[in-house]
Amino acid sequence: MTTAFDTIRRFSALAALALVVLGFVASNAITDARWLSLLGAAWLLLLVALWVPIPAHTPPFNRAVVRTGVILGSVFVLLVVQVIRLQVVQSDRITSRVAVAPNGDVVTNGRLLNEDVRVRRGRITDRNGVILADSVQRGAAWGRVYPEPESGYVIGYYAPLTIGVDGLEASYDDVLSGTAAGSTWERWQRDVLHRNQQGADLVLTLDAGLQRYAHELLGDRPGAAILVEVETGRVLTLASTPFYDANRVSAVTSSEASAAQDYYATLLADPALPLIQRATEGLYTPGSIYKVITAAAGIDLGFTSPDRVYEDDGALDVEGRVIIENNRPDERTEWTLAESMAWSLNVVFARVGLAVGADELTAYSQAFGFGEQLPFDVPLSESQVASEDDFLDRLPALADTSFGQGQLLANPLHMAMVAAAIANDGQMMRPYLVERVVARDGTVIDQAEPRTYRTPISAATAAQVEEMMVGAVTTGYASAASVPGLRVGGKTGTAEVEGQEPHAWFIGFAGEDAPRYAVAVVLENAGAGMAGSQVVGRELLAAAIAGAGPGSTSASVQTAYVRSFSRAGGWPETPENGILDHAIRRFPTRRTGPSEAVRVGRARRIALAPRPGRRDAGQRRDRGRGRASS
Amino acid sequence: MASRVRRATFRSTELQLLVAPSLLMIVGLLTIFLAGRGEVGWAWSDIWVSLVYVGAMIGISLSFGLVGFRGDQVILPVTLTLAGFGLLMIQRLQADLTALDEGYAGLAERQLLYLSIGLGLMWFTVVVFRHLHLLQRFKYSALMLSLGMMVATVLFGREVYGAKLYIAIGPLQAQPSEIAKVGLVLFLAAYLEDKRELMGASYRLGPLTLPPLPYLFPMVLMWAACLMILVLQNDLGTALLFFGIFVTMLYVASGRIVYVSVALVSFMGACWLAYRAFGRIGIRVQNWLDPWQDPLDTGLQQVQSDYAMAAGGFFGTGLGLGQPWRIPIVETDYVFSLIGEELGAIGTLSVLALVFTLVVRGYVIALTRADGYARFVAVGLSTILGFQTLIIVGGVVRLLPLTGITLPFISYGGSSLLTNFIIVGLLLHISGLPAREEGGAT
Q1: Which letter does DSSP use for residue B14 in this model?
Q2: Residue among A65, A82, A191 minimizing CB distance to B252
């Protein structure tokens, strides 16, 4: 009899334990209500397990006291289980948990944000050691300054308590803040002993001088200019205009917060969309620069070669859609492919595209990185061939796409990589912005290695396309890009946009002999004049090959600049020793900034390059008729 | 029995156990000051409070020995550790809360004052107070006084956070339900000791075997009083506590699980009705099961408390390094979350272990004393401490719906602290009474 009860009790104890362990293991999958019912069941089992027999001669009072103690004790066990669940099992999940209030406010864990500004984040420098982002102490908090405004916005901004964190500051947050530093054992020690986190430094591939020069060249024209190293994929210039002052957005203390929020509000409301980085987030109709891909596909498939002669008499009828040719420099009707590339003949590329066919053109575009997000240190917008799956099945649409119109949309950095791939024997390198991660003590934690991302075409094909692009610069519409003493190749593009002035594109590469650098330049709604984007590209290429860009700041000037920020130059010191303003303390987790900004950003980015819908595709074609795409 | 001769003694176990709270106070208080200033240098002024506290602890223990008190040697160190925790937490909160609201200035000083008075009351109850049986004799007075205070709170009470808990006497305000719970235990102990023989018996009415209804009548009255607190005062926590004490003592007196079941079922039924009738309780249930649905309004406290507990992890963020100001009313209802954040699971589990030790010692005292009334009082008072911890901690860790009552010895609040020290004083007093001979009368 007794043994039977003993067995039951033992099993109950095991079952209770099993239920709790099960609940712990599945704690992320079940609701709290379900967990509580599980715990309730475990409690009943625990009571059975604890219901030890009391000797019969025990007085009733004592018996009742012992039983009460056992019941109370079992509930204390539940408290212990619940504490362990909250503090140990679910700790990480709760810490990162985000809730949405009924009024739509997004509530995140305010504790993390406060921890954030107590950490001295790592420094970010360009490839020559020029400081691009540094931490300065303001009271107990560490704030961020960006001594090079033309590079600052590329790095993003850092205002974790008010507006949010963006750019490299966001994507490398764990490195910069030091959260990820060290082994698991070292992190554990740091947690237990409450040691300060050590943020690591970033060395970028960016060249502050070239970046500044790119901005000088772009001026206040909206657009983007990107320079990459052909053989490695290093990004030296990532310029977008208009841009914002990252210093004015980054705020860590209360006295800065309201000014930063005001500034951020004006940025959000600005119709020129300064918060959108054209170079990485922009999507534009590529126009004729896409002809490079059409030609590469045709040559790679063996359908055509630079010497092959095509007929172009000024117009081409594709199933009733008449493509008018305005680009011929003279009245000849027979043109080689190389000449067609130099003079950007739409009719010829329509013919090449029709020969390649929808499937192959799509396949080559995808091999060049269309329709996917390229790996990069900050998120890139995805280039696309068509917004509708069956768009290219219509021959007129295929013809339009072949010379860069249709539903094509291209990301500027991506286009620089396309040019670089042509110049790099058909190998598209993975683009990167962060060269290495360096710990405070100088040890290199992480060093970027150039990696081939794709090989869309053979080296032979690439050589032929490269030669045709060089031809376009020596004798063709891209002649404004030529630099004496350098071998320059390029392709211009005038991207037709419904109801707006066309975008002016230029992609190209240059080197003393073999190509060293590639560029992509886009000037929004710059009109049909092709020289503007070519000049920007040419100057950037020439400056990059000549060495560091003109006017790069020396390191000592840099340091002085940072110091002026840390001394009341940029912001007044916070009067209180504490970090946060009480308004933030009272409403600790009310954060609307970042999420809203992202949403607005997405909505507006689409507006940059109107995508023709199903219905207006026809209208677009009609209006486009007779216009040049050079 | 008060006339028995007391010879001076040396309470060595107690003194040894007091080392732990002494270290806790000195290291803890120093840590708080240093963390607040962000530097390593310290001055004697940082720890003089701790040193005075340590001195008081040792003084109390020695004086107990001098007057020949031979009672329990574990309760005092455990109590003083808990009270030390409380003082540390309030001291730690003062700077952060004062930054939010000037009204919090002097929070720690007030707590220190209450603590001193509390220690004095405890000392008095153990050393000076000799006549426990006076309390037994005036059982109905105790009941009337308790009920009267509760009624006065309902009539004249000040509403705080939607519940009527406080009564203002001039510049002071008191929470009568705190001391009323002791009155309730004193009454129940006396009444049940008187009627124990009858309670266990049953009487026949025709073919039915019934419990002794007339003797149960005051019990029913008590049950109704609990409901009254619930409805009129809108104070679910206190109602739950009173009811828990009542049911436990009834069970201990009668040994009958039937009473407990009937009372429990009817009380739960009443709670369910209240849940249907009052919106406030419905919100509580939602906050218990899923506070994340409304993280800025009704669920704010609970969500921030969850963040705090999670931030603490196993080892905590360290004293003075957490962000307790994010939890509204952290100094009373959510002081447990503060411990969870800064001292981690180690801290919270220690607090639970300390309270449970206290309860178990109380029950052991009840089991080993000879005097029937004293035994009932010991059970009742220990149960108060156990249930109160269970209700508030259960609410904070979301085992139960949250009902705002104090965490014994740790939450800020004078009434609560004084009452708890009286409880401990009475327990110590009872532990000094003669022990029951094995197999003797019960």
Answers
A1: H
A2: A65
Is domain A104-204+253-269+278-477+579-630 in CATH 3.10.20.310, yes or no?
A: no
Window A:216-255, CB contacts with B under 8 Å: none
End-to-end alpha carbon distance in chain A: 98
Contact of B430 with B132, CB cutoff 8 Å: yes
Helix axes B44-66, B107-123, angle to 10 degrees: 10
A406 and A397 in contact (C-beta within 8 Å)? Answer: yes
DSSP, collapsed to helix, strand or coil, labels residue A458 as: coil
Contact status of B340 with chain A (Cβ, < 8 Å)? yes
Taking residue B79's Cβ as centre, other Cβ atoms within 10 Å add up to: 29
What stretch of H or E contains B363? helix B335-368
Cα–Cα dist B146/A65, whole Å:
25
Q: Which residue of B has its CA nearest to A589?
A: B296
CA B272 to CA A247: how far, in whole Å? 57
Q: Which residues pair with A234 in a beta bridge?
A: A432
Taking the CA atoms of residue A251, residue A256, residue A258 and residue A259 in that order, the dihedral angle to the nearest 10 degrees is -100
Would you call A23 an interface residue with chain B, using a CB distance cutoff of 8 Å? no
Cβ-based contacts under 8 A for chains A and B: 165
User: CA dihedral defined by A113, A114, A120, A123, rounded to 10 degrees?
Assistant: 20
Residues 194-233 of B with CB under 8 A from A: 200
Instruction: Please indicate whether, in this complex, the C-beta atoms of B296 and A107 are within 8 angstroms of each other.
Output: yes
* ipTM confidence score: 0.92
CB A418 within 8 A of CB A320: no
Structure tokens at A590: 């009310």
Bond prior to A242 in cis (omega within 30° of 0): yes
Give the C-alpha separation, A47 to A12, whole Å. Answer: 9
- Ordered DSSP codes for A180-226: T-S-HHHHHHHHHHTPPP-PPEEEES--HHHHHHHHHHHTTSSEEEE
The gap between the terminal CA atoms of chain B, to the nearest Å, is: 18
Structure tokens, A78: 């539940």
Mean pLDDT per 10-residue segment, chain A (630 residues): 81 94 89 91 93 86 92 95 93 85 76 75 89 82 86 87 83 83 71 71 92 91 93 94 88 76 87 87 90 94 92 87 86 91 92 93 94 90 87 90 90 94 94 91 88 94 94 89 90 84 91 92 78 88 74 40 35 26 26 32 34 29 32
Domain ranges of chain A: 4-95, 104-204+253-269+278-477+579-630
**CA-to-CA distance for B399 and B383, rounded, in angstroms?**
19
Q: What angle do CA A358, A362, A365 make, to 5 degrees?
A: 140
CB contact at 8 A, A526 and A532: yes
* B383:A68 CB<8 A: yes
